[in-house]
UniProtKB/TrEMBL annotation:
<dbReference type="GO" id="GO:0034417">
    <property type="term" value="F:bisphosphoglycerate 3-phosphatase activity"/>
</dbReference>
<keyword id="KW-0472">Membrane</keyword>
<dbReference type="InterPro" id="IPR000560">
    <property type="entry name" value="His_Pase_clade-2"/>
</dbReference>
<dbReference type="GO" id="GO:0016020">
    <property type="term" value="C:membrane"/>
</dbReference>
<comment type="similarity">
    <text>Belongs to the histidine acid phosphatase family. MINPP1 subfamily.</text>
</comment>
<dbReference type="GO" id="GO:0052745">
    <property type="term" value="F:inositol phosphate phosphatase activity"/>
</dbReference>
<dbReference type="InterPro" id="IPR029033">
    <property type="entry name" value="His_PPase_superfam"/>
</dbReference>
<protein>
    <recommendedName>
        <fullName>Multiple inositol polyphosphate phosphatase 1</fullName>
        <ecNumber>3.1.3.62</ecNumber>
        <ecNumber>3.1.3.80</ecNumber>
    </recommendedName>
</protein>
<keyword id="KW-0378">Hydrolase</keyword>
<keyword id="KW-0732">Signal</keyword>
<dbReference type="Pfam" id="PF00328">
    <property type="entry name" value="His_Phos_2"/>
</dbReference>
<dbReference type="GO" id="GO:0003993">
    <property type="term" value="F:acid phosphatase activity"/>
</dbReference>
Length: 193
């Protein structure tokens, strides 16, 4: 059944047809979507802290580049592009606190999360999913926006869509307090992650 669901999804995405999907009920699709979300939740998302901490060096580098861009007389390029897969995108979004539900996703709470969950990978990490962290300059002030699949999203830890860069940095450092990004993958580290 899972293979048919995936085949149906690929057929719809690649050929804009749903011939393979016509034999399935809406409930069937909701259950299999939830199964897929559970897999990503525990493999690359909020299921285990180490999953999203793996994006820590990437986020550190992004912030380092943004810091260099806000320096007076900065000569930094205006665009830095990186490419990856869902296994990079989902941990980064989780590290930023996006799409986190109040109650952990489990196999037993599908009825609760069926329609209302935030962690829905088909929405924030579909085919060709993307994230942009955009720095805007207004005179001497800088604002930052996080754009997921061409939509500006509100950062939960900052409660803003377009945040002052200094506020963003301060609140991000509080969110990441106590995390040493360069030791996340250290094999000699204890297992408190």
């Amino acid at each position: 059944m899972v293979a048919l669901y995936q085949l149906c999804a690929f057929d719809k995405a690649l050929h804009d047809r749903n011939q393979l999907c016509s034999g399935f009920s809406r409930f069937f699709f909701e259950v299999l979507e939830y199964v897929s979300d559970l897999k990503h939740f525990y493999k690359t998302g909020y299921g285990f802290r180490i999953n999203y901490l793996l994006a820590c060096p990437l986020l550190e580098d992004i912030v380092r580049r943004l810091d260099a861009s806000v320096e007076p007389n900065s000569k930094n390029g205006s665009v830095v592009l990186r490419f990856g897969h869902a296994e990079t995108l989902i941990p980064l979004l989780c590290l930023l606190g996006l799409y986190q539900d109040d109650v952990r996703l489990t196999a037993h709470n599908f009825p609760r999360h069926r329609h209302s969950r935030k962690f829905r990978t088909g929405t924030f990490s579909p085919f060709a999913g993307n994230v942009a962290i955009v720095l805007y300059k207004f005179g001497t002030n800088f604002k930052i926006a996080v754009v997921v699949n061409e939509r500006v999203v509100k950062l939960p830890f900052a409660q803003c869509h377009y945040c002052d860069y200094s506020t963003f940095k301060h609140l991000l450092s509080k969110r990441l307090e106590g995390i040493k990004c360069n030791t996340v993958c250290d094999l000699n580290r204890h297992t408190e992650l």
